Amino acid sequence: NAGVTQTPKFRVLKTGQSMTLLCAQDMNHEYMYWYRQDPGMGLRLIHYSVGEGTTAKGEVPDGYNVSRLKKQNFLLGLESAAPSQTSVYFCASSLRTGYGETQYFGPGTRLLVL
Amino acid sequence: AQSVTQLGSHVSVSEGALVLLRCNYSSSVPPYLFWYVQYPNQGLQLLLKYTSAATLVKGINGFEAEFKKSETSFHLTKPSAHMSDAAEYFCAVSPLRGSTLGRLYFGRGTQLTVWP
Predict the structure, then answer these.
(1) What whole-number distance in Å separates Cα of residue B107 and Cα of residue B3?
(2) Which B residues 81-100 touch A at CB under 8 Å?
(3) Which of A9, A68, A71, A111 is the most exposed place for a label (fewest CB within 10 A)?
(4) A94 secondary structure, DSSP code
(5) DSSP, res B83
(6) What is the C-alpha to C-alpha distance for residues A84 and A87, in angstroms, rounded to an integer?
């Protein structure tokens, strides 16, 4: 049982390039989330999904797109990377939302945009 | 809007000393409350959570936290620090109602250093 996995672990992009971050979970969770972590800012929610085929915006969605074509996968896309998107990106999943449900986090993807 | 304040971005203690990490929330209705720990170059791991049962919550690795409604606080404590406790700790809240039901809002984190 791998839990939540993320690929790649580290990536360097040039401004304007695009990339996709992949999150996979094997816990049959309904809900999945993408966060970014910046020094001194804690984690901020980018987008989330409440089930296969659905997505919604979080606190900081600008410059990102997401897709959830399969229940176990949640993709985060950067169409045109900017230096402000240099960050550590975490994916999380939970069985459901509300009721104090625990979110389980992946190991993170470090992204550097030059 | 949900708000979480962690007092002190850095806390240093000696091994064996008491650990106290502070967290206050702002919400008219007490939310669910969480403490997560992040070890270097790793993801976040749940330490403990409060979901309106007992106000004193025990978590993993000897940590505990007490929910105090009158103080809107959920401070994290451990009686005796160990070197392996060195990590960043995040307090988070999850609203009980409204359009943001179930979402987590994180504090800015507290880096705990443990000196030998």
Answers:
(1) 8
(2) 90, 94, 96
(3) A9
(4) E
(5) G
(6) 8
Query: Do A107 and B42 lie within an 8 Å CB cutoff?
Result: yes
Interface test with A, best of B44, B50, B89, B91 (most A CBs within 10 A): B44
> B24-57, pLDDT tens digit by residue?
998 777 788 999 999 988 899 999 999 877 889 9
Note whether A9 contacts B: Cβ–Cβ < 8 A: no
Helix, strand, coil shares of chain A as percentages rounded to 5? 5, 55, 45
- DSSP of B32-75: EEEEEEE-TTS-EEEEEEE-SS-SEEE-GGG-EEEEEGGGTEEE
Please provide residue A59's backbone torsions phi and psi, each rounded to the nearest 5 degrees: -80, -35
For A43, nearest residue in chain B (alpha carbons):
B106
Hey, are the CB atoms on A100 and B51 less than 8 Å from each other? yes
pLDDT in tens, chain A (114 residues): 779 999 999 999 999 999 999 999 999 999 999 999 998 888 999 999 989 999 999 999 999 999 999 999 999 999 999 999 999 999 999 987 667 788 999 999 999 999
